[in-house]
């Protein structure tokens, strides 16, 4: 199971196009295994598995990979066709250039254009026509999918130097820190991501059989589950593990395991927009949410499982994370939240 969670904001934003087209969003949520009642909790989160399933439900119900938000429909299979065209490319630069040529075949165009300037490469969102995307979900999804697809194709994370957005800083902007792991700029001239040109010459290491396997769950999994195995955040999460019943490893031990100094590790985590304390807190939060979905587990037992010796301390921490008590959160997941 995945131990990552996704903010309720993105759940509601993903449903925006379907709602504007008159689809029953409550039914779509239930098909994805998400309790509509849970979304009444302001700081609710769903598992990455649930979010992936919601993406698949929306795409197939609407037969539109733009989720009803774009200037035109992109029928299901468009992304897979583009992937089939780029898998034979020799380098990441060739991937991005061929994908842009593919996207330009459709009118109005929805594409990411590669622009190289010195030692900086930018992927810039190019969308013609009107959008039904008040929560910016389609635009953000394009950035995330193209960044993570490129990283997967070359087998290493494309480290971002900047993520830009051509709109005001939204209320959910704090979530962007964990999505892009780089400096953020709002009210920019374009919606784009910037990275070092050295990544453009990286060879594509995936083959057609790997791509077929990849497409069974993508692009849904690209949106909900980043491959963090090569980031310091992801490696620390892996070292901490999921068993919090024994004391957590300290920062010095973690640094030694990663063959780096504590000072260097702090600097790298800052570059990834996080800290050791935040990694621990968010890991506990996500595991607590996962355990609460298992109705047979008593809440006091869950407190111990996520590293709290006193249930009252767990209740306070959980309320800080989600705005409600563990009991109220579980009722929301059950669909029994009282008015």
TrEMBL record:
Alphabetized UniProt keyword annotations: DNA-binding, Transcription, Transcription regulation
PROSITE patterns for this protein: HTH_ARAC_FAMILY_2
UniProt entry tagged with the keyword Aminoacyl-tRNA synthetase: no
InterPro entries associated with the record: AraC-type_N, Homeodomain-like_sf, HTH_AraC, Tscrpt_reg_AraC-type_HTH
Ranges of residues in domain HTH araC/xylS-type: 234-332
Ranges annotated as spanning the membrane: none
PANTHER family to which the protein is assigned, alphabetical: HTH-TYPE TRANSCRIPTIONAL REGULATOR GADX, HTH-TYPE TRANSCRIPTIONAL REGULATOR VQSM
Protein name as it appears in the record: AraC family transcriptional regulator
Organism: Marinobacter salinisoli
Species lineage: Bacteria, Pseudomonadati, Pseudomonadota, Gammaproteobacteria, Pseudomonadales
């Amino acid at each position: 199971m995945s131990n990552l969670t996704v903010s309720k904001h993105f759940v509601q934003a993903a449903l925006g196009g379907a709602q504007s087209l008159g689809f029953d969003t409550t039914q779509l949520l239930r098909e994805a295994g998400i309790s509509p009642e849970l979304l009444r909790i302001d700081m609710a989160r769903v598992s990455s598995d649930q979010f992936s399933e919601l993406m698949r439900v929306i795409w197939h119900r609407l037969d539109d990979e733009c989720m009803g938000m774009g200037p035109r429909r992109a029928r299901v299979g468009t992304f897979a066709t583009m992937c089939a065209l780029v898998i034979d490319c020799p380098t990441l630069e060739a991937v991005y250039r061929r994908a842009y040529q593919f996207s330009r075949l459709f009118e109005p165009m929805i594409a990411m254009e590669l622009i190289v300037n010195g030692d900086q490469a930018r992927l810039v969102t190019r969308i013609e026509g009107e959008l039904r995307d008040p929560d910016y979900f389609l635009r953000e999804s394009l950035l995330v999918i193209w960044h993570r697809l490129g990283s997967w194709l070359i087998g290493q994370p494309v480290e971002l130097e900047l993520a830009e957005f051509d709109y005001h800083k939204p209320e959910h902007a704090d979530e962007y820190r964990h999505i892009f792991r780089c400096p953020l700029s709002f009210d920019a001239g374009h919606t784009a991501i910037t990275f070092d040109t050295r990544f453009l010459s990286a060879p594509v290491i995936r083959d057609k059989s790997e791509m077929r396997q990849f497409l069974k769950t993508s692009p849904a999994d690209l949106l909900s589950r980043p491959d963090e195995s090569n980031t310091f955040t992801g490696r620390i999460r892996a070292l901490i593990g999921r068993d919090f019943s024994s004391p957590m490893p300290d920062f010095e031990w973690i640094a030694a395991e990663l063959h780096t100094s504590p000072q260097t590790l702090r600097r790298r985590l800052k570059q990834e927009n996080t800290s050791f304390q935040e990694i621990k807190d968010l890991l506990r939060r996500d595991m607590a949410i996962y355990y609460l979905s298992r109705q047979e587990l008593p809440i006091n037992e869950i407190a111990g499982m996520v590293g709290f010796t006193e249930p009252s301390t767990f209740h306070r921490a959980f309320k800080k994370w989600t705005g409600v008590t563990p009991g109220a959160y579980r009722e929301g997941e059950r669909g029994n939240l009282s008015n």
